[in-house]
Anaphase-promoting complex subunit 1 N-terminal domain-containing protein
Amino acid sequence: FARAQQNRKPQRNKLSRVPAVFVFLRSIGKIFLKNGLDFTFAVPFVVRKAWPLFPHGVMIQRIVEASELEEAALTGEPVLPTIFSLTSPFAEAGTVALTSGILGGFVSPPTLRDEEENSRKPLKAVPSTENLVWVSHRGPGGMNDIAVTVDTEKRQLS
């Protein structure tokens, strides 16, 4: 049996990118890969809109409920973040945050400037008053991603 197992060692496949379609329902999301696999994951909010982030996944903006705005106004607390990214069907959606710069990346692993300067302070999330208006679509040969947000209260594009 041991010899048979050694002879049948699975060959490791190279990682490959597979096109996918994301479908967001009220409380779940589905990912349908072109190779026939599909994944289901929980979505703890209603999705307003989603944008592809080639080759990483998808960026999601959630709907802010009126009751959440009222509660934030009463308590004086800020509204929770509204922009998230999903890079794996096995991970939770992560908050999209702002950084003042990226250090390294060519010789050493890249790090965020904010993490180097103050390792105890978390990154600042994109303000919940900002709505995503447009996200560039980077193709296989592209180098940069650009996202445009608008803050209607301040009448400001970022």
